[in-house]
């Protein structure tokens, strides 16, 4: 229960006017929940109000109640009465109209029809709980029915929901104020009469403000005159938007961000004065000295407003609004739940997981009873706590998903520790072998709703939500709102734009802010000296950062929670207001924490990409290898798969693919799910920073001894070699040593994990006392408690780690046994991420899988498996839509492969497969395999002609005049009769060269597929660079690392700084991937001409490892070829004797003479009986350029040339 500072009814004798005669209550106020408008933070407002001694405050955010619960709780805690309200958007016409009012030259001449399309402001305040509910309903319908630019209510909604509401006429944008200030006094009077009729004399107030706007003074005069004449109540407000006058400029910038305007724009929306701040009661009374009754009216209204929100029962337990699960057997929910769990566990015992266990001699006598005992304990607890319905609802939509081909994860979070969940197939993890704790999921000593997080295949997640919506009713299912904040980077970017910095300059400023999770501007300035330097030297940058710091943390926009779905017993609007998502989704206006606070139950429907990978790969396995393959039934003790992981083959393997994870896998060499679970738990900053992972490795491999403070801990810690890795271990230690119940132990675990010092110290005494009572050494127990406290901070949820380790193993299994299927699934889910695609293609090659270019006869929308290789998916090609791919796949499946380009054009529907599609397919080589006569350039130059010809044939076929087959529609047909090439007079031209082909691939697919412009430089780049770009991106640590990278410059953007200096942003690309480069003015001035992208470069510089994604800051740039000439001391050319014909020998000699230089060359001849080295002597000294190497490599089919840099020879035998 919350502290109740006020609990008054309207009839109580002591009024606020009597107890606070000189006070004032702000009834028109905008907090951070008035997105990009209100700049009042609740954390600042409530303490200020308390300090001023005000008895109440109202929150009236624009068109919403996003912050109502947040506001209510904070006010109650501070002993201030919260008044819940909203400044709604009101249209005099119908909320269903979709018209905008025209801007007449003379506003006063607008006719009634035009006036009806205006959007006005109106303040509504809830008097009581009925009023609160009515306001929720009104705002919900304004969003769901009346949204047009803004969520609009009309007079019909006001009449329907007026009970329990007080109405005030708002600002100059209110219908009354607007018509008075535009000289339309009669309309203003009609508006007053209309509203007074709805809300009655007692609950309707005309609003006056003192804000320094000349028009406002005129409106105030008219309002007071009318009120005096008609005896209508008047209330004073200030339309507060910010806390202090000093915040006025920042709030105007906020409006500029909202409207996309520049601060220098004279026509931008602005407040026109600095009076819209949170003023003290004294200030307000002083400003309204001429109308004291208007200030008194604020206290009168505050007296009337007595909303009391209560979310707990008489025992103080949370009330949950969960629907009853529909049961058609006549059983109670509890009985049905108990039966489902019993039958489910029996079914599990018959499954593959238990085959080995059931055959054990001690199954019936020892093992099986443990399962029934654990299940009974869980079921009894779940029923006692009132949660069967929750389990049944989750089990139902999971089972529906599985029945409808939507993959579901094995478990996620602490729910994987429940045997009841396993029995009901909510999870697929048997918790007993892994010592997973039910109490980590549901704590019987602290009643709170369990929270299953469920992973679905990304592609099917929305279908599951649609199923739940249909089952429980559209009005009872909604998603949860989230609020995007003006975080450090975003606010600097936004404010920079408002002050007319170019996009590139704003980008440069925001990129100086380190990519640290949750970083604020104050910390960013400390961490990055360059920011402080700019602030000190540039007045505009100083202004940007000053305002950015004032706005930082305010809400920028509302969105939808990635996973959370609410299901309720009554329509959602009975509990809270609703918001309309961008795609029409019904969304709860309170975020997940405040939704749960009021008893709404959240179900997390998460989309996990890896499940899509597994599903797609499994379908290929079923198609090409094992028809009844089921990933759930693989052998999780397969030694070959563990060896594969231990060898570091985990690129693309779920959660094990970063360079640090690969290294840890190689060091640990896992041989069980337990080991993979530990790897997942250990590879985090806390354990890594404390050296836990090193200790684990050393003990596992016998180089250190296991240590147990007490022998009783061995069964609890043996799986992690005596190291406390998991939260569950902390809980079990407290149970075994100090006699804690697991519920109490969970409270201890939370206190330690969240560093609640007072609670930790309180439990220390309980722990030591319990240990002493059980005969344990108190001093050693104290040391252990301290160790537990330090490790609990890093401790990982074992239930979650085990569940995700199953997914890790499944992906490793697929990669080991079915690599082509695995990579097809993996690449299909990453089509839009070119960096990852590059890494995965390179890894596929390392595992014997070639990634073939797109092909009209073999490609699908996603990647396709062709034998041991995979064919690029056409969904990755720009301008090629899914409908076009469906059409060409349909045609080839129905009528056979395409015989050539012209055959393709005559057979597919050219209404669907249009010219842009065809041109893109040509450019990426999708016809290269089937087209034997026309090269890419010839096809592209003649595409329009051939398509016109094909359309004519298709039209004639429709008329029944010709058969396509009779026309000989293939350019690859050997029969010369009716040859379309001759008929169309197609002339063969020289094809694009390799560089042009690769450029088209990069342009249309984002990556190079058939080759890479840097292939010829690969050897020298490997010798001169300190690492490749993929390795640089994967480095771990928090320091700045010096390095040398080589590659091609692309996507370069030059900008001019305010000082007039040039700098640039660019991408550096090598064979492994890309990294962003930021070249500051000093470096740009010296090396800018080398950054054209025409030639590969070698860059020295540094990467800040604390930032994600990685950025490279060059300090020196050289052309790669110049460095090759300077540092290559010799070259080695490997030649097989059987390849060395007289013709080749002569061409080899000519190539060497074409690249005369000063570097000695050596030929290594190899044959069946060994190798021989031949120095070529001074007559064949060469210039060691990549071009020379490429010519020689071409001659001898492969990577024959090796550069020896700085005298280093990799093969000493050849010295």
From TrEMBL:
Give GO cellular component annotations, separated by semicolons.
cytoplasm
Q: Where in the cell is it found?
A: Cytoplasm
What is the enzyme's class at the highest EC level?
Answer: transferase
Q: Does the keyword Protein biosynthesis apply?
A: no
Q: Which SMART domains match?
A: POLIIIAc
Q: Name one GO biological process term.
A: DNA replication
Its EC number(s): 2.7.7.7
Tell me the domain of life: Bacteria
Q: Name one GO molecular function term.
A: nucleic acid binding
Q: Which UniProt keywords apply?
A: DNA replication, DNA-directed DNA polymerase, Nucleotidyltransferase, Transferase
**Record keyword Nucleotidyltransferase present:** yes
Give the protein's recorded name: DNA polymerase III subunit alpha
